[in-house]
């Protein structure tokens, strides 16, 4: 089969990832797009471990491990150090998990983007603090079990919208990605690195132990995130939104939720709420992209449905 | 060339003539003039550096480490709460063995809000693995920053140059600005032993188990021991090139003194006047300034304290639940030496003035062997 994915491998085997780890695939594809003219900095996250124990490493590019909240500021410093020594053409990548990005590292990220530093920031989003043993982050989706959101106290708050936060910074380029769509992702990484200035990419990365799925369905679950519109694939270039994968056929979010142990406690009514949130998110993105929402009927239907029986934790405007 | 400048501007000029290539800093009173001056140096093209205007001190320290890891000479400056916010990254810098230099303006910690000097901010960072140099005057500040880069780069240990808020930071003194050519000779361009290099890719700071971590810390201490010789050598070279003499400690009329004051920072300068006044009145007083707090000059403390009738350690700091921090260190250094009485006096916390008469009062107490160990000098009860 012919693909546009570069053949070069800059992640070696023998790394310490779990079976079916989405974060590892994310790294592999990203480095294929970036090539060897690249330096990484990684804060505390799964990748602090996946990389391998000292003296081993699974990356063929230089890597600087750093403290949890410093991916962006460390990357800014590395870029400045290289630039002053005439090596400003080297790609500098801050590579962080969702906790390190949406929670503890957001201040440094905001600073780096506001300053306009020429850094590519990638958040591989496995939707919780997986490295510490599955605790909720602000990027954990509604309904999810984690060790700090045990049912019935499952996550009730909406997943933080990092891309919107980046757009609010007037970032030149930001996009979402998914490990099940490597060609889409590689195009985005290539586009990002061609732009001088700050870039932010967020890739949905399945986590078999954290999502309570078996490792062999890791890619299948990632595909369902796209086809159910739970995780839309789009990019924002100079403030202009564009879907990179349009979904035409209605597939309910329950198809995505029901294959994952982390959502197994949800009732049908609660799943309806999550369906409604997906519809609202999709409608909002369509409006931002300036296109017609082909799922307007679903949005209306679920708005009514949820109003009729809404679970206590979900507030509906009357 | 002599110029009348504040301690803060002495820091800025030092960063410039040491050719710091990346500066990442965040403003905090009383450090702001340091970064303002460096900003204008960069804007005027007088300084070939990238100034990253970060959003916090935590990021300032992180970016400084990153720049150093990429092979550049990197510098930052902060104070008090800012240094405390950096704490995590201070450990990171020392353990990563990057030779960065920080100027810290000693300011007391809140609450209540305060901007005046004491040493609890920098001494709280005692165990982070940094070298610490306490300055007495603005020339000392400028020279210490230049020396610090040279020492740090030779032993791969970061350095903190410490100066008192307002007493130095905002006080103008004539400072000799050495010629750039001479400084370039003294402090050549930084060539990192290990750096982020795409031609020779390495991973830095990866997960390390108990079988290897221990040795890394042993090596840091080994280099601290090695640093003593390096410091002495660098100071000798500095004297030869610039004519100014520095030591890890500075004794002042200490040899024949019966009572010896152990001091640091600007109190050391006031203590010299107290010594002169006491001598006029026939009281054989002397002083010993601790300039390098880390590595602690144990050998020199032992040498200069030997045979004294009485020693008074004046601490502008406190380790709560214990005692004055310099006092602990001095006592520790004298543990296996012939016994001499060492007394502890606390003074000047939160920027309270410590005048010549205060130091003379403390000296009289020490001479008479009067001390509550510690005595909180001048505390209003």
Question: Could you explain how this protein is built, in words?
Answer:
Chain A has helices at 22-34, 46-50, 71-84, 98-103, 106-115, 162-168, 182-194, 208-211, 218-227, 254-257, 268-289, 296-309; strands at residues 38-42, 63-65, 91-97, 120-125, 173-178, 199-204, 234-237, 240-243. By secondary structure, chain A is α/β, with parallel strands linked by helices. Chain A has two domains: 22-266, 3-Layer(aba) Sandwich (Rossmann fold); 267-318. An eight-stranded mixed beta sheet of chain A has the order 2-1-3-4-6-5-7-8, sandwiched between helices. In chain A, helix 1 (22-34) crosses helix 7 (182-194), helix 3 (71-84) runs parallel beside helix 5 and helix 11 packs antiparallel against helix 12 (296-309). Chain B is an alpha/beta fold and 381 residues long. Chain B has two domains: 2-242, Rossmann fold, CATH 3.40.50; 249-376, 3-Layer(aba) Sandwich (Rossmann fold), CATH 3.40.50. In chain B, the strands form three sheets. Chain B has a seven-stranded mixed beta sheet, with helices on both faces. Chain B has a six-stranded mixed beta sheet with strand order 10-12-11-14-15-16, sandwiched between helices. Chain B is globular. Chain B starts with a strand and ends in a 5-residue tail after the last strand. Chains A and B meet through strand 1, strand 2, helix 3 and helix 5 of A and strand 3, helix 3, helix 4 and strand 9 of B. Strand 2 of chain A pairs parallel with strand 9 (203-204) of chain B, so a sheet runs across the interface.
């Amino acid at each position: 089969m012919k693909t546009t994915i570069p053949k070069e491998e800059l992640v070696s085997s023998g790394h310490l990832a779990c079976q079916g780890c989405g974060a590892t695939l994310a790294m592999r594809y990203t480095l294929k797009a970036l090539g060897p003219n690249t330096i990484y900095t990684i804060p505390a996250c799964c990748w602090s471990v996946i990389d391998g124990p000292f003296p081993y490493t699974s990356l063929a590019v230089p890597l600087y491990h750093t403290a949890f909240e410093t991916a962006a500021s460390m990357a800014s410093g590395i870029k400045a150090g290289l630039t002053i020594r005439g090596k400003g053409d080297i790609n500098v990548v801050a590579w962080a998990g969702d906790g390190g990005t949406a929670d503890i590292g957001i201040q440094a990220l905001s600073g780096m983007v506001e300053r306009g530093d020429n850094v590519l920031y990638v958040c591989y989003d496995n939707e919780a603090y997986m490295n510490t043993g599955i605790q909720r982050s602000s990027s954990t989706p509604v309904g999810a079990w984690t060790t700090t959101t045990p049912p019935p106290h499952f996550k009730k708050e909406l997943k933080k919208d990092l891309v919107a936060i980046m757009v609010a910074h007037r970032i030149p380029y930001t996009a979402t990605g998914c490990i099940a769509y490597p060609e889409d992702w590689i195009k985005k990484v290539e586009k990002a690195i061609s732009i001088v200035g700050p870039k932010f990419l967020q890739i949905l990365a399945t986590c078999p132990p954290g999502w309570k799925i078996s490792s062999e369905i890791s890619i299948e679950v990632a595909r369902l995130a796209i086809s159910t519109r739970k995780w839309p694939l789009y990019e924002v270039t100079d403030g202009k939104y564009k879907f990179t994968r349009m979904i035409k056929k209605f597939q309910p979010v329950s198809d995505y939720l029901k294959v994952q142990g982390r959502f197994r406690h949800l009732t049908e009514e609660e799943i309806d709420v999550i369906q409604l949130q997906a519809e609202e998110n999709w409608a909002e993105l369509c409006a931002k992209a300036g296109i017609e929402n082909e799922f307007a009927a679903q949005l209306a239907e679920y708005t009514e449905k949820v109003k009729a029986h809404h679970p206590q934790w979900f507030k509906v405007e009357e | 060339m002599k110029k009348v400048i504040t301690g803060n501007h002495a820091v800025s000029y030092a960063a410039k003539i040491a050719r710091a290539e990346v500066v990442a800093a965040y403003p905090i009173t009383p450090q702001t003039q340091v970064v303002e001056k460096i900003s204008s140096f960069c804007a005027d093209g007088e300084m070939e550096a990238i100034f990253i205007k970060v959003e916090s001190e935590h990021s300032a320290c992180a970016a400084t480490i990153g720049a150093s890891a990429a092979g550049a000479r990197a510098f930052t400056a902060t104070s008090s709460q800012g240094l405390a916010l950096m704490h995590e990254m201070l450990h990171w810098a020392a353990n990563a063995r990057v030779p960065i230099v920080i100027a810290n303006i000693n300011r007391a910690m809140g609450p209540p809000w305060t901007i005046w000097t004491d040493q609890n901010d920098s001494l709280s960072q005692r165990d982070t693995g940094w070298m610490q140099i306490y300055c007495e005057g603005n020339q000392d500040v400028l020279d210490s920053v230049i020396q610090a880069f040279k020492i740090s780069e030779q032993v791969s240990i970061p350095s903190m140059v410490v100066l008192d808020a307002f007493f130095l930071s905002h006080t103008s003194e004539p400072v000799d600005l050495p010629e750039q050519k001479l400084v370039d000779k003294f402090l050549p361009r930084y060539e990192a032993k290990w750096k982020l290099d795409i031609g020779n890719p390495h991973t830095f700071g990866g997960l390390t188990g108990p079988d290897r971590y221990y040795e890394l810390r042993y090596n840091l201490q080994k280099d601290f021991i090695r640093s003593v010789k390096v410091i002495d050598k660098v100071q000798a070279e500095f004297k030869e090139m610039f004519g100014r003499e520095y030591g890890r400690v500075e004794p002042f009329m200490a040899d024949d003194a019966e009572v010896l004051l152990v001091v640091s920072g600007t109190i050391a300068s006031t203590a010299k006047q107290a010594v002169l006044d006491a001598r006029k009145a026939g009281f054989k007083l002397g002083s010993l300034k601790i300039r390098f707090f880390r590595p602690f000059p144990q050998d020199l403390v032992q040498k200069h304290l030997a045979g004294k009738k009485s020693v008074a350690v004046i601490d502008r700091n406190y380790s709560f639940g214990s005692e004055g921090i310099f006092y602990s260190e001095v006592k520790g250094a004298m543990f296996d030496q012939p016994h001499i009485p060492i007394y502890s006096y606390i003074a000047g916390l939160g920027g309270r003035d410590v005048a010549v008469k205060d130091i003379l009062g403390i000296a009289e107490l020490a001479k008479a062997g009067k001390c509550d160990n510690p005595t909180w000098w001048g505390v209003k009860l």
